[in-house]
Write a structure and sequence with these properties.
The complex is a heterodimer of chains A (390) and B (184). Chain A is an alpha+beta fold. Chain A has helices at residues 2-14, 16-47, 73-81, 125-128, 151-156, 194-201, 219-228, 239-283, 285-294, 298-327, 351-378, 381-385, and strands at residues 55-60, 71-72, 95-105, 114-121, 133-137, 146-150, 165-168, 171-180, 189-193, 205-206, 208-212, 234-238, 331-336, 341-346. Classes of the chains: A alpha+beta (390), B alpha/beta (184).
Chain lengths: 390, 184
């Protein structure tokens, strides 16, 4: 039945103008879906993947974000005394206290400033977050007012880059390095010495404490130890869970909005596809009558037209995925509703989202193609043979 | 023969099993056509009936060879066997050199010859020709009638032809005149 396939392919090709318009419509709708999926992937990557499965985040009980949390120095000291925290080869405990504050920074090309996270931490933080990597300059020195800015901050806020100055709290800070973090939220942050930052804000408590576990299974032991110590009114979360919770609201909102639009546009695309295929059936009525007269079964006629619909869908899907590949170079920024800070992320194309888009394009073309294909299969042969036209 | 609306095409449709009679039975090529199921009729048509249409009904996106091959898709022949049959049929109608031409690259007479090659490629017993020269000029019409005569004489095809044209009717061994759905 290769000839019937050839017949379908050439018919699609022969109606190049209507084919192109139908494919364009289907591809646009599929691209909307793909963009929504890529937004979700990008957000996931920026937030969820910011957390490492081996890291544990300690926050004050009841606090939902680092900004709203507070851990006193003596509490941090007690935690550091607990067994079950990973150490560096040099014997340094991987338990990093951090202070997180928000500052308002002028954004390049925008009229209103945006909030940016400044994270006071220790140089060992690079060991906790191996995805963070210096791409220019150097790390800050402890006890100084030096800072390292995330790559997205360098692109959108501090265009002067290394050597530029920034006022944070009561102090003037010098940018000494730029870091990237594989598209995670750390690229939208500024990092410096935790003690200097606390002094700049006159704070006497940290925001959080991040621990590295020797292995993920040690979580329960740490959780039990902290939970049973009445001096520590702290909650223990896997770092990845913490970031996942932060992403839920935003990702759900974007997905809901995106899928609603996709659904509405999909109806339009289905109608467009249906009209195209009805047009194809109308212009080939006599052809269909002839094939039936020769002995072709209605089911074979149905398959021919469904195949043509699916070809339109496949081409549209491929076009959408192709356009999605180009969209990967787009970086967007949004308000992180958990921290009210600017979060930049890249649209991310994954094999799963490409497959979903292809399946979606094929499905809507199939749904649109079914009524005309049924009509073609059910045409009365003798009437079809005497229809004017082709 | 008969005027428009006299039932000429209807009789072809009835013989082919494309239409059902309201009364009586139809026997053709060893089958009681009027009592068969649609699926059986389709198989029977593919084997025993060849159609020649007034407007050729060639598929414009397929070449002459591919158009002729269409009825063979319903057989169990291999691709190579089908191609052999197609070459033979197109050779018989004198179009061996137009095998890869598309319908738009052929004259009206050549298109009808491709239509006839398609009708005979599966070696049917009966050819049903509905105004086969109704769309052709005089010389092309004569060539087509000569070809149909040859198919009847050399390949023993039974040809049931509907026509308005008395000259075309002159090629027939038996002529039935239709008027208002009845044989005169």
């Amino acid at each position: 039945m290769k000839l019937l396939l050839v017949y379908s392919v050439r018919n699609v090709w022969a109606r190049s103008c209507t084919t192109a318009l139908s494919i364009g419509g289907l591809a646009l709708v599929s691209l909307i879906l793909l963009a929504v999926l890529m937004l979700g992937n990008g957000l996931n990557r920026a937030l969820i993947e910011s957390g490492s499965p081996d890291n544990v985040l300690l926050l004050r009980k009841g606090a939902t974000t680092e900004i709203a949390s507070g851990i006193y120095r003596d509490q941090a000291h007690v935690v550091r005394m607990l067994a079950g925290i990973a150490q560096t080869s040099g014997g340094e405990l991987l338990a990093i206290p951090e202070l997180v504050v928000l500052i308002s920074l002028a954004k390049s090309g925008a009229e209103t400033p945006a909030n940016v996270v400044v994270r006071g931490t220790q140089p060992e933080a690079f060991r906790l977050r191996p995805q963070v990597r210096l791409i220019a300059g150097r790390a800050w020195q402890q006890g100084t007012t030096e800072i390292v800015i995330g790559a997205q901050i360098a692109k959108r806020f501090l265009l002067g880059g290394i050597g530029s100055h920034l006022r944070v709290g009561k102090r003037e800070w010098l940018v000494v390095g730029i870091a990237e973090a594989q598209g995670t939220a750390f690229e939208s942050e500024i990092c410096g010495d935790v003690d200097q930052l606390m002094a700049a804000y006159g704070r006497d408590s940290y925001s959080s404490l991040t621990l590295r576990l020797p292995d993920p299974s040690a979580f329960q032991r740490i959780d039990d130890a902290i939970g049973s110590d009445t001096r520590l009114l702290l909650q223990v979360k896997r770092e990845r869970d913490y970031y996942r919770e932060k992403s839920v609201t935003m990702a759900t909102f974007i997905r809901l909005l995106g899928f609603t639009f996709t659904l509405i546009f999909a109806f339009g695309a289905i109608l467009g596809g249906t009209m195209t295929m009805y047009g194809a059936v109308a212009s080939r009525t006599r052809e269909i009558g002839m094939l039936r007269a020769l002995g072709f079964h209605p089911r074979q006629i149905l398959s021919v037209f469904l195949l043509e619909s699916l070809m339109l869908g496949a081409m549209a899907g491929l076009l959408a995925v192709g356009a999605g590949t180009a969209l990967q170079f787009v970086t967007l920024s949004t308000m992180n509703f958990s921290t009210f800070s600017e979060l930049a992320f890249r649209l991310t194309l994954t094999p799963a989202s490409a497959l979903i888009t292809m399946a979606f394009a094929l499905s809507i073309s199939m749904v649109g193609g079914i009524p005309p294909a049924i009509r073609a299969a059910r045409l009365p042969v003798t009437a079809a043979l005497h229809t004017p036209g082709r | 023969m008969g005027p428009s609306g006299s039932g000429k095409t209807t009789i072809l449709n009835l013989v082919a099993g494309l239409d059902r009679p309201t009364q009586g039975t139809i026997h053709a090529a060893g089958l009681t056509v009027s009592q068969q199921k649609e699926a059986d009729l389709a198989r029977w048509r593919a084997r025993y009936i060849g159609f020649v249409f007034q407007f050729y009904n060639l598929i414009p996106v397929l070449t002459a060879a591919e158009n002729v091959e269409l009825p063979l898709l319903l057989s169990k022949l291999t691709r190579r066997e089908r191609f052999t049959h197609v070459q033979a049929a197109l050779g018989l109608v004198g179009l061996s050199d137009r095998i890869h031409h598309y319908p738009r690259q052929l004259s009206g007479g050549q298109e009808q010859r491709v239509g006839i090659a398609r009708a005979i490629v599966s070696d049917p017993t009966i050819l049903l020709a509905d105004e086969p020269i109704g769309n052709l000029d005089r010389s092309a019409a004569q060539a087509i009638m000569a070809l149909l005569t040859r198919l009847h004489r050399e390949l023993n095809k039974t040809i049931l032809m509907v026509t308005h044209d008395p000259q075309a009717a002159g090629y027939a061994q038996e002529i039935l005149h239709f008027d208002k759905g009845k044989v005169d």
